[in-house]
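Escalated from tier 1: pyridoxal-5'-phosphate holo job.
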Amino acid sequence: MVPTAVDTDLSPAVTSTKVSTKNENAEAFTTNELPNGQYLLDRNLNKNYPVVVRGDGNYLFLEDGRRIFDTSSGAAVSCLGHNEKRVIEQMNKQLDTGVPYIPSLFYRHRLVDQLCEHMIRDTDHKMKKVYLTGSGSEAMEATIKLARQYFWESNKETKRVNFIARQSSYHGNTIGALGISGHAGRRAPYLPFLMDNVEHISDCNPYRQRLVGESNEHFVERKAAELEAKFQELGPDTVIGFIMEPIVGAAMGCVPYVPGYMKAMREVCHRHGALFILDEVMCGMGRTGTLHAWQAEDVVPDLQTVGKGLGGGYQPIAAVYISEKVVNTVTNGSGQFIHGQTYQAMPVQASAALAVQTLKRDLDLVTNVRMQGKYLEKLLKEKLADHPNVGDIRGLGLFWGLEFVKDKENKIPFGSSQAIAQKIHDLAISEPHNIVLYPGTGCAGGVSGDHVMICPAYIVQSDDIEVIANTTASVVRSFFENLDA
Ligand SMILES: Cc1ncc(COP(=O)(O)O)c(C=O)c1O
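Tier 2 regenerated the structure:
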């Protein structure tokens, strides 16, 4: 029988968040040895980024001696915090076998089997199979191809060539995933290369789109009618599927679905035989208070991606969940997914992800996400709802966004050249605040609109939440007090 849990001591103590201020490795990383500007991985080539030397629990320690409260879990990744020994132990155990990698073309590995079994069990077997990749963008690329293959298997001349996605959305930076994405700023330089068989309908953003006095039901009806109209415009039998993030992360700053929205959108897709596809790379794996965002309303997708919170930053790993109908069609057709990459389903990736998922379950961390998330919502709203430049505070679980506006009454955003969100992040990560407010733009129609995201690790306790809310409030107040009009 295949074992179902990582063979380790998963005692219910969460990694201590007590930290030492000693930088044990600081000597090893001097600025002489690590000169700035050598690495293209720095996104902004003109910027001096702080140098990290170690991590522990909620904290990252910098070469300059400062301690940063990682209130964004990096890019909503480090869901168990840093230096979780029980994950590292499992990775080391796997490395000690001499097999960090095996080609998934030729072999299976028990840890990979166990991880997939664990993941399927956590959907209550509502999804049938898991396809592992190395990043969220790769998972989206695989999803785009698998969705097309689903129709191609039963009809090689299928007319299904179109995807429908949403305007303010982000699904990854590779050409296919960016083609699906609606993020105008990130698409702009690459437009000539992006797929032209993707149509974008409006996203689901009650702050900016709800009519005065409009009920959720009516709002959802309008959205479903818009999707239906897009199917009719394209020809319903040309559409492969509709792709959406249940809670929009980077593109909008944690805007959740309106109750009933996912179900209504799925109904439209299924009425026309198309696939309903969820991108949970950022909002999934417990981040919003259920393991999968769709579980909150039991709206099972046909295909679903996950990423960041799967490996929690301990290994690069993401995945596509595949429903029974897609599995059966491919199985009864060619019998293979016409895809594959070198680095996927590695035993060392599986060891990390399995340990992260097992800890989440055994320590009941998703319940903690719900509980601490409610407290964070309460405090953020108490402290910032009245601020003249905070237009909206929205989110779910430990996934919260603040949208900033120049004119609150008319919801007018700041000019994009003012780089408000980036500057708020720069202030937050500096002394004396030392927190991370993950900046983003485009929430007010694609290019303008500034937001920051707050998405701490699932191990936070109520005193951590108080620090996050108080510090965020003082960063925001201090920033706008000192902003030249
Ligand atoms: C919703 C969503 N989809 C896909 C991706 C792409 O994932 P990755 O950066 O791992 O390629 C991201 C990354 O932020 C994301 O937020």
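The radius of gyration is 22 Å.
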